[in-house]
Amino acid sequence: MIDVKRILENPEGVKAALAKKLWEFDPQPIIELSGKRLELLKKVESNKAEQNALSKSVPQVKKEGGDVQAIFAKVKALAAENKEEEAEPEKVESELKAQLEVLPNIPDDDLVAGGKENNHPIYKFGDPSSMKFKPKNHVDLCESLGLIDYKRAAKISGTGTWIYTNLGARLEWALLNYFIETHLGDGYEMILPPHLLNYDSGFTAGQFPKFEEDVFWLEGTEPRKFILPTAETALVNLHRNEIMDVNDLPKKYFAYTPCYRKEAGSYRSEERGMIRGYQFNKVEMVQYTTIEGSDAAFEEMVKKAQKLVEGLGLTYQLDKLAAGDCSHSMARTYDIEVWIPSMGIYKEVSSVSNARDYQARRGMIRYRDANGKIQFAHTLNGSGLATSRIFPALVEQCQTEDGCLVIPEVLRKYMGGLEIIKPIKK
After folding, report:
1. 63 partner at 20 to 30 Å CA-CA among 82, 125, 254, 281?
2. Which of 101, 124, 141 is the last residue of a domain?
């Protein structure tokens, strides 16, 4: 959530910043509500001050032989009046919160305006043109190698799903083991969070109220729960409503979970197979940092995601997203996009983002700095990594002309030393 002080102090600056994110923002309602709330609070405080002054005067009036009953009656009347008036600032506060909570995060100053058309690559690894034969697509390869069963998945679940089979299941698990081992080696704490989350978790992450319909809700639960769309939603809530010690920061977590999203389906004919689905596996990183440590944490997480892709030997590019392509809650995002040979395009396999204090304000995630002052923490997240696009990229980039799959060296120890997967005999 945006700090309301920032809007009051520089309304046009906030308006211009959100315009870079393609968000039309009129600061006037928030300015008016803030002013109204302040006036109402002043009135309530003035009323309380008058009550206190009258109450303090009672001993002196008694001493002088005056009528204290009149004072008691006046105090009682003021208390009744104040009880009614105290509800007004709360009502205005609720209206103000409703205005603030739908606003997206303010993008960092160095981001260009506009949507994904203004994203630009800042680093490239590998050569997309190095393959000297026409590549097969991952759907055909996965079927010929016996890695994925799409037909039975459709039979037992429906479209937008798949079943890892035999060596395909082992290869998927090898990827997850590789990611997990790397994060543990880098000092991250492993978490296995619940997959059913409450509304406050979605609100703190910034997904609610705007994106309430984009998740799967579980009916019949009280309170109502949803299935996590990413482990970030759980991890960023670990320290909700807490005050951490500055000496405990940064806190570095990662989690493996399946992820469940409504965005499945073939938006384009090219997005078949595993490119887009209702359910996929992902290892997610999250950091809680001080204000001063935020930028360094972002760079560290970007490099970690890059290292994972490079360890697999995959061709990819690093994209700096334009303000309008950053997600609702994020101030900046870099995407790692891996090359899919059969499609001739790059596809995102990791987004590393900095929310600054946006999520922390929504979830009251704070720390006490070295001077004893309470500050809002900064939260960051990054995929490390999602397998649903790494898997097809790996299958396509590591294929041989005769239809075999060369397993990346870093995965072989998880595959019992297996180096190559050959087509199954029919």
Report:
1. 82
2. 101
* C-alpha separations of 223 from 74, 97, 199 in Å: 45, 22, 8
> How far from the centroid of its chain's Cα atoms is residue 169's Cα?
28
Reported for 396-403, long-range contacts at CB under 8 A and 24+ positions apart, including other chains, are 396/135, 396/136, 396/137, 396/138, 396/141, 396/340, 396/341, 396/342, 397/131, 397/313, 397/314, 397/315, 397/339, 397/341, 398/313, 399/135, 399/136, 399/141, 401/133, 403/136, 403/141, 403/144, 403/145
Domain count, the chain: 2
Residue type, 63: K
State the pTM of this model: 0.90
Does residue 111 fall inside a structural domain?
no
| Rounded Cα–Cα distance for residues 142 and 379 (Å) | 38
Domain identity same for 92 and 154: no
Give the whole-angstrom CA distance, residue 232 versus residue 254.
9
Alpha helix segments (H runs only) across 123-166: 138-144, 150-156
pLDDT in tens, the chain (426 residues): 999 999 999 999 999 999 999 999 999 999 999 999 898 888 877 777 776 776 777 777 676 667 667 777 776 776 666 666 677 888 899 999 999 999 999 999 999 999 999 999 999 999 998 888 999 999 999 999 999 999 999 999 988 789 999 999 999 999 999 999 999 999 999 999 999 999 999 999 999 998 899 999 998 888 899 999 999 999 999 999 999 999 999 999 999 999 998 864 444 445 555 556 788 999 999 999 999 999 999 999 999 999 999 999 999 999 999 999 999 999 999 999 999 999 999 999 999 999 999 999 999 999 999 999 999 999 999 999 999 889 999 999 999 999 999 999 999 999 999 999 999 987
Residues near 324 by beta carbon (within 8 Å), at least 6 away in sequence: 20, 21, 22, 113, 114, 115, 116, 118
Contacts made by residues 368-371, CB under 8 angstroms, sequence distance 24+ = 368/243, 368/244, 368/245, 368/246, 369/246, 369/290, 370/246
Structure tokens of 282? 């992902």
Range of 213's domain?
Answer: 116-421
State the DSSP H helix or E strand holding residue 354, giving kind and residue range, or none if neither.
strand 345-354
CB 58 within 8 A of CB 150: no
Give the SS3 label for residue 26.
coil
